[in-house]
Write a structure and sequence with these properties.
It is built from 11 helices and 11 strands. The strands form 2 sheets. Strands 8-7-6-9-11-10 form a 6-stranded mixed sheet, sandwiched between helices. A 5-stranded mixed sheet has the order 3-2-1-4-5, with helices on both faces. With about 300 residues, the protein is an alpha/beta fold. Helix content is about 45%, strand content about 20%.
Length: about 300
């Protein structure tokens, strides 16, 4: 049986189709369409009519792609992107009218739990912290615990951090401001105070984009496990903040996420520094994968 999940995030719409047989899940196809709701949001937090049309058209395209590979059921989920939209009901109604499908809006803890389910194998590496770098929010999970009390979703995503400064690129003082904001959010929510993690596992499209820039900057090739050294990541941040050539490497690798990469890098490096982790691993599994596994577990009873 083939099951499809479409994830509606703040910067893209993505499709994952997997062939489910018993406890086996085999990926069939994955497609991502860059549709940033940031460009369609009004100052009052509403998506414009044109933005809604763009979202519906993109979802239709992904639904058709899922059906072409034989998906028997298609599910649409949304995370922090829909939680910030003031005209959510209008968007959901338009999607329902255009596709016949409803959107399941995951709350912060459900989003974090789906990330945990998708990346459980990393717990074998010891004390591991999972960081899903979203758009407006990010999930932080202690992988050694399966309790939802060890999972947090905070409004420290790159888009939220981007709003702390003016212009496309932050200055040195802006980076300090972002770090301070991250620290305050973690402290305010008592996110694993005093704990040390051996590694940070990153997930999400922003993490994937960050690794593309990191890999290019440090000329990395032939690396099966996608890892980043915290010290090198800190050097990359310095380069992206101060170099006149930063636009070239960003446009070459992630033209659709130019404004998200530096805040994402600062977030990842700051989290790793707080918890004394010197290595970061970029996972290829995220909320969609976890949600599919939860669907499978429910169907198996």
């Amino acid at each position: 049986m083939k099951i499809a999940v479409i994830d509606f995030s703040s910067t893209s719409l993505s499709l994952l189709v997997e062939n489910v047989s018993g406890e086996m899940m085999i990926p069939v196809v994955g497609i991502r369409k860059s549709v940033s709701i940031l460009g369609y949001l009004s100052k009052k937090g509403k998506i414009s009519e044109r933005g809604i049309e763009k979202v519906v058209d993109s979802i239709k395209f992904l639904v058709e792609a899922a059906e072409k590979v034989g998906a028997e059921s298609v599910h649409i989920i949304s995370t922090a992107s829909m939680r910030i939209i003031k005209n959510y009901e209008e968007v959901a109604a338009a999607v329902k009218s255009g596709t016949g499908l409803s959107i399941t809006n995951l709350d912060g803890i459900s989003e974090a739990y789906a990330d945990y389910i998708a990346n459980r194998e990393y717990s074998a590496l010891g004390s591991v912290l999972l960081l899903d770098i979203g758009g407006y929010s990010s999930s932080v999970v202690d992988m050694s615990q399966d309790s939802r009390n060890s999972m947090f979703t905070l409004d420290i995503g790159p888009a939220a951090l981007f709003s702390l400064f003016d212009g496309m690129y932050p200055e040195k003082d802006d980076v300090k401001k972002m770090r301070k904001s991250i620290d305050k959010k973690l402290e305010k929510n008592s996110v694993f105070p005093g704990k040390i993690f051996s590694r940070v596992v990153l997930t999400g499209s922003n993490a994937e984009a960050l690794y593309s820039v990191y890999k290019d900057h440090f000329s990395i090739s032939g690396q099966s496990l996608r890892t980043m050294e915290r010290k090198k990541l800190k050097k990359l941040i310095k380069y992206l903040v101060s170099s006149e050539d930063r636009a070239l490497i960003l446009i070459r690798n992630v033209p659709e996420k130019v404004h998200m990469i530096i805040p994402a890098a600062v977030l990842a490096e700051e989290i790793a520094a707080i918890y004394n982790a010197e290595e970061l691993i970029v996972s290829d599994k995220g909320v969609k994968d976890g949600y599919l596994r939860l669907l499978m577990e429910e169907s198996n009873g």
